Amino acid sequence: MLILGLLISAIFLKSQKKYRQHGVLMLFAVALHWISILIVMIPSFAMFFSAPSTVHAAEPIEIATLVHVLAGLIAAVLGVWLVGSWRLRADLQTCFRKKRIMDVTFGLWSLAIVSGIVLYLAIIQLI
Known about the structure:
It is built from five helices and no strands. The protein has helices spanning about 1-15, 20-50, 60-85, 95, 100-125. It is elongated.
């Protein structure tokens, strides 16, 4: 939820043309995203799929998991590339040229968040 809050705040800053503050918040969001991937999501994913014989690819929970993993991982990699290419520079012209990639990254990140929420709700219903 913290990452989602950072994303919403960053979008708000961007709409106010506060691009540097937007970039700093996105830097934190990307860093927290990677921390959550390494500490929480990879162990959870490994535990969930630890018994391959119980996995059925057509099951909604497995589909939601794969959508979440793929969208989140691609968004995380694109986020690192975007933040890394910016490198806290004052010149924002190079950033504006990457707007399409930013839009795709935001869409994938949104899909990952929504599918993660759906996945979480499905898992707590199973317990």
